[in-house]
Every structure is written in structure tokens, then in C-alpha cells.
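Ticket #4471: structure export looks truncated?
Reporter: QA, pipeline team
Priority: medium

Steps to reproduce: submit the single chain below to the structure queue and open the exported record.
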Amino acid sequence: MRLPYLFTLSLMLFLSACGNTGSDYRPIIDGPIDERYELDLSQCQEIARQRGYGNDSVKTEATAGAVTGALFGALAGSSTGDTGVGALVGAAVGGGTSAAGSSYSVIYQRQDIIKRCMSGRGYKVLEPLHYRY
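Actual output as written to the record:
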């Protein structure tokens, strides 16, 4: 019965440790790195922080994962006669894994925001985007 709580607590600690991950990114550029670059980069990093880990996409993925996990957990628990615990464990594992995977993609999204922001400010960013928007 404690497994779902431990898993959820571990996931929360993991996600809180990733708070600025992706938004501290420094793209590789072709050109000088001077005071103006540092100011532009700082502003672009601040913009990237607006893409939070608790966005609607992450919430939707976590909910879908929890529902799917609960269904599979209940089915697995039916063989032992304990569908409630199976559903609870399945929901925690399914929701947590889905949220973690979706949150991990936020790192790349933040990096892409910084790349596009810096390109928009006239810098020649040498790295490709992770996602095609």
C-alpha cells in the first residue's frame, strides 16, 4: 500500500529538482559572445521558463497514464482478488511515468525556445531544433 506514495513522492522530488532544467541552456552560436549576447541569452532563458512542467500537456498525459495504469492494475489485481490495490498501484505508476516522460520533453521545448529566441535576435544558432513546430 505504501508503494504508490513512495513512487509519487519520488516523482515529485525528481520534478522539483528539474525546475530550471532546459531554461539554463546555452546554444552554440557562430559569432562573438559579448555583453550583448549575455543580456539576450538571459532574456531568452527567462522566456523559456514560461514553459512550465505543470502545463496542460503534462497534466493530460499524466491523467491518461493514470487511467490506463488503473485499468491494467485492476485487471492484474483481479487474479489475486485485490483489484483496489492493483488499480491504485497501476494509477500511481502509470500517471507518474507518463508525467515524467512528458515533463522530460519540456527540457527540449525550453531549449528550442531559447534557440528560436536567439535566432530571432540575430544570432546564428548552429544547433537544430528538437521539435518542428
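Status: closed, not a bug. The export was complete when the record was re-opened. Leaving a note from the reviewer for reference: The two ends are 42 Å apart (CA to CA).
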